[in-house]
Amino acid sequence: MKNFSIATLASHTSLQILKGAKDEGFRTLAFCINKNEQFYRNFQFIDKLVTLGNYRELIGLEKKLANSFVIMIPHGSFVAYLGKDFNRQTKFKYFGNKKVLEIEGNRLLQKKMLDSAGLKLPLTFLSPNNVDRPVIVKTFGARGGSGYFLAKDKAVLKRQLKEKQLEPGKYLIQEYIIGIPVYIQYFYSALSRKLEITGVDRRYESDVDGLGRLPAEFQLDLKPEPDYTVIGNFPIVLRESLLPQIYEMGQQIVNSSKIMAAPKGLFGPFCLETIITRDSTIYTIEISCRIVAGTNLYIKGSPYMDLLYDIPMSVGRRIAREIKQAIKQRKLAVILT
Ligand code: AMP
Ligand code: AMP
């Protein structure tokens, strides 16, 4: 154990990942952008801080550091800033399956994976001509929901596409689901082959969550476009009667991922992003195939983790525990790629 370091980029969920690793007895290593160094120096559980001008400088460090004793924990910043080529080619050992990170980064592959798991998805319209209900248009490359727009019917959609001069093939037209967004966090252990629900959250998004604060008169005058840029997260507990169904959904995606991301499939932390309607229909809109930032709510454990563990268990700590277990059982090859 003493030889191993748990490493990650200093952002997104790094604090709980590194704290959890330290709590489980690992050495910890953070790769930090220069301007954030002061902040990350505050935390005693970070043993070593390597500063970088930008994240891509990690490539230059691979030779020196990418030995089997440094275990990298990928999170949202790996998908957003390092990109699929880096994640596929890097010599760093990742906890989790590099193949599923690639699926997460590609809308079409994501849809295929969710479809093949038998999950219920909002309808996708291949052409604006087929649209017969309110839709949300997701431009490719849009980050975190910035640049999405809504259209209440076919005529409005066509007008907006023309105004924005969007070319076909550069966006996705999806049925708009009226309901509430619910993000379900899971952890699947490749060692024990057990699935855990680790927490549930919703996002606090600017400006959609701010629009309701404007009086109707302002809304009509200003005609604000909804924007879904994440600023933070709120905790949620679900009706207990929904839990068996969402557990089953997690199981289905784990099973079907064994085909698309063969042979290991999806394991470790992941999240299904859903919209739940008034009749409890659960639509899945996206999947994150690694730890999500909503787990930052539960560094001292979530209501669901409390049911499974006798100590405060963050997802970061759960990851470290899995790695510790694998080292003890000499099964590191099962959980690293
Ligand atoms: P950041 O390093 O904060 O820029 O985040 C990296 C990626 O994770 C971006 O694509 C963000 O949109 C996403 N992200 C960051 N924080 C959160 C959060 N609290 N909830 C959901 N997504 C987030
Ligand atoms: P996404 O980038 O897919 O995570 O979506 C960002 C936000 O857009 C979500 O948090 C939802 O609030 C909203 N959203 C995405 N897809 C839909 C949909 N089909 N129906 C309603 N709202 C959606």
TrEMBL record:
Gene3D superfamilies: 3.40.50.20, ATP-grasp fold, A domain, ATP-grasp fold, B domain. Residues 98-313 form the ATP-grasp domain. Signal peptide: none annotated. GO terms for biological process: IMP biosynthetic process. Keywords: ATP-binding, Ligase, Magnesium, Manganese, Metal-binding, Nucleotide-binding, Purine biosynthesis. Its cofactor is Mn(2+); Mg(2+). Coiled coil: none annotated. PROSITE patterns: ATP_GRASP. One of its GO terms (molecular function) is ATP binding. This is ATP-grasp domain-containing protein. It comes from Candidatus Gottesmanbacteria bacterium RIFCSPLOWO2_01_FULL_42_22. The lineage of its organism: Bacteria, Candidatus Gottesmaniibacteriota.
